[in-house]
Amino acid sequence: MASRKAFWIGLATTVLLALPLTAQAQPPYITTDTNTTLISFNDGEAGALVAGSGAVVADSLTVINLSPNSPPVITTVYESVATTLLGAPHATITGNYAVVTNHTLRPSENLSFVDVDSPAVGKNQVVIMDLRTLEVTDNLQLDTSPWLAKPVGDGNRVIIGLSNGWLVITVDTEGGIVKKTYSEFDLTIMSFDISSDQTSILAGVQGHSGEWWLAKYLLADDDTVVLEGKTTTNEFFVDAPFAPRIAPNGKTALVLNSGGFSDGLLDDVVVVDLTENIVVDNVGQVSDGLESVAIHPSAEFAVISGLNAMPWSATSHLAVISLLSDSAELLYSLPIEALPEGIEFSKSGEQLFVGSTLANHISVYKVEGMMLTRLPQVLPVGEGHVALGIGFGR
Fold first, then answer.
1. Residues with pLDDT less than 70, the chain
2. Residue 363 in contact with residue 354, Cβ under 8 Å?
């Protein structure tokens, strides 16, 4: 009898070890199918800016390394870089380096932007930080306000939207800025995205009159940026285009018609045919204060974050939009902690990462089809998360 029991125990153990990890007990920590790096820019002013009162704490940058087999490795460094809540919530990784933009503009009492000279605000600058050593490797001081940086393909170039046009920089293997190319325009590049083929740029811009509009630009071989033309809106109302994201095919883009602010009104998502540079569709009343969008690698759906940041709001939201048919469609919404700033899919698209400003963490969702299921674990970051970036294979 004892030998028979030992036989069955041994057989069960052999079968269990032969099963894939998904069929065994899952580890109690967050893993990814490929080595993944998340960066969180954290603005110590964020809480005070949102609440209108409260203490300002140190700015910080959090680096999170995820892998298939090991627990997350999370490190936060303080006061090495300055960051700001005001802008599109996307952070940039190029190779082994984070590219951190910061500007000194803050809202005045009438909600216009004014320059503020304060140690808590920092300077108009672009900082390069080595994600291996967490040391600053270069710092470019600017006379203009840098609003957002994006990597150009998989190379070592980064494009930056400024309050007076564009800047393209090249970062060498030592983390130094070795080339700078400016393209000046008489307007502010508030937010933008660049296509995967590194040529087409869709930007939400603002003129000196305060008017916002969409425009398509092209990145030339010499790193200059040229205007192709203002985006045609047809019958669709576009008044505050913000944080566009271009689909993997490079032909379609989603744009949040919110200005990145919550004002008590439900905002729309517009769909742009990037080839023709024209708005072709509209998903109405998705949420209040649309902040960020991530398009699934399959290009079949997208996830939108809504701030819902009025004084009486109890929660923010995630909205899932289907892109399968000729007309984009809102499928469902989920509650999430305030305020969701920056969302990114994993390389396989099987996970979604969402940063929350007031919760000071990144939440993780399992993606099955178009269904999002939240994991119980979170990834803690420094106080005042304002932007999320992702990189693979490091």
1. 1-24, 109-111
2. yes
